[in-house]
Specification:
The chain is α/β, with parallel strands linked by helices. Helix content is about 30%, strand content about 20%. It has 2 domains: about 100 residues, 2-Layer Sandwich (60s Ribosomal Protein L30, Chain: A); about 160 residues, Alpha/beta knot (3-Layer(aba) Sandwich). The chain has 12 helices and 12 strands. The strands form 2 sheets. Strands 8-7-6-11-9-12-10 form a 7-stranded parallel β-sheet, sandwiched between helices. Helix 7 packs parallel to helix 12.
């Protein structure tokens, strides 16, 4: 069930992970083996446990402890469960706890992009996607719509960022992901037999249902940041440029919305044709 610890001292170093460490400090780049992340809400925590992640401690609203019994029963008895009333927890963390429960967990060892490319045939490439809400939504769509892995440039936000995990509904845990080498990732795709499809607003772009796209054996869907989209050099290096046709004078979609449309057409329908 875990060891229930009512919060008596805000300065307790054991609470640093919830109250004082930044997201970058949690990653602990100098000692990756010591890195942590925060899972928020019972659903996300359950999915992290299902995926084999190791909990370190919990922070929970006192009134929710009975509802958390099934989760806590899956954890070692000595695991600390720090508790207080909701106003105290929000004072401690500095943000609103919409689901009343947090769990600090150990970060996994990073995967290698080349390993994922060798074992998949449909991946998403994300360039400079820095908004955690968008990234979480993209992972949720990837999990639902047949994308086997997500590969990110180094400038993307951390998929294990608390808000990203919450928006993804914990689906980040079930879609393999890795960071790409900074300047050589296009070559890495081709070395592993992938053809790349850049999602971009270009007059010469193909539409999503172009028959040529159905013939691609190993597909990489490449998407860019929220504002400027993909870099011109990235678009030029891709094998195809594709756009989502729109009506009523709308010129673009949010990257998260565009990802869902693209994954459905380019990933799911390849696996399950109508």
């Amino acid at each position: 069930m875990g060891r229930i610890v009512p919060i008596a001292d805000f300065e307790d170093p054991a609470l640093d992970v919830y109250a004082r460490l930044t997201e970058n400090q949690l990653v602990c780049r100098e000692r990756p083996e010591d890195g942590l992340f925060i899972a928020e809400s019972a659903l996300v925590i359950e999915r992290a446990l299902d995926a084999g992640f190791e909990p370190v401690s919990f922070l929970a609203e006192t009134r929710l402890l009975p509802k958390a019994e099934a989760i806590l029963a899956r954890c070692p008895e000595e695991l600390p469960v720090y508790t207080a009333e909701l106003p105290v927890l929000e004072r401690l963390t500095g943000y609103a706890l919409t689901r009343g429960m947090l769990c600090a967990m150990r970060r996994p060892a990073l995967r290698h992009a080349e390993d994922l490319l060798q074992s998949t045939s449909c991946v998403a490439i994300l360039e400079d996607v820095m908004n955690p809400t968008n990234l979480g939504a993209i992972f949720r769509s990837a999990a639902a719509l047949g994308v086997e892995a997500v590969l990110l440039t180094e400038s993307c936000t951390d998929p294990l960022y608390r808000r990203c995990l919450r928006v993804s509904m914990g689906n980040v845990f079930f879609v393999p992901w890795a960071y790409l080498p900074d300047d050589q990732w296009q070559a890495l795709l081709h070395e592993n037999g992938f053809e790349s499809v850049a999602m971009a607003l270009r007059e010469d772009a193909k539409v999503l249902w172009d028959p040529a796209l159905r013939e691609i054996q190993k597909l990489a869907v490449v998407m860019g940041s929220e504002g400027p989209g993909l870099k011109a050099s990235t678009i030029a290096s891709c094998d195809y440029t594709v756009t989502v046709p729109m009506t009523n004078g709308v010129d673009s979609l949010n990257v998260a919305a565009a990802s869902a449309v693209a994954f459905y057409q380019l990933a799911l329908l390849r696996q399950h044709p109508l």
